[in-house]
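In this supplementary section we document a worked example of the pipeline. Step one takes a protein sequence of length 193 as its only input; no multiple sequence alignment statistics are reported here. Step two produces a three-dimensional model, which step three serialises into structure tokens for compact storage. The input and output of this example are shown verbatim.
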Amino acid sequence: TLVVPSVIKEKMVAFIALGSKVSGDAFDEEDMSFLSTLANQSAIYIENALLIENEKEAAKTLAEARVREEYTQKLEKMNKELVETREGMVKAERLSTLTKLSVSLQHEINNPLTSVIAQSQTLLLKMDQDATLPFTFIRDRMKTIEQESKKIRDLLRNLANITEPIIREYMPGVEMIDIKASSEPDENTVNEQ
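The serialised model returned by step three reads:
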């Protein structure tokens, strides 16, 4: 029996085992040279097959890494877009709330303020025209001014206490925050009236 090793980098990866020749003759130097070349070629073939397999694995790993990287980049881009969209929505909501609040304040403050100004102007005009105005006339105008001023004060207190605004349609296409309904009146406001 003859054994011829296939060696790669000083490591045996295979071997060729042969029985005796069919002719019964011994293996000569030419046979040994052929078998040695065959064993070396086998070792090279095995080494190449292993290298190809390693290359395939490396290529597969690289491809998977690229896919993961692309997926990660897409997710990061989507996340960035979501954050930007969310920030835009928050800004838009703030602007919308400020617009509604502005409409509400203009409506709620202008009504009593108009009354205060009208009563003050009436009182001043009458005082300029008649220095002997009846006390009841002056008192009635001052009471109206006081009541309307308290409405403005209470409105501003309610505004400070809003936790969950209630939105109402002021006119078609224009919404406002219902300041009176959006908060609980505080005890001081109730007691002072």
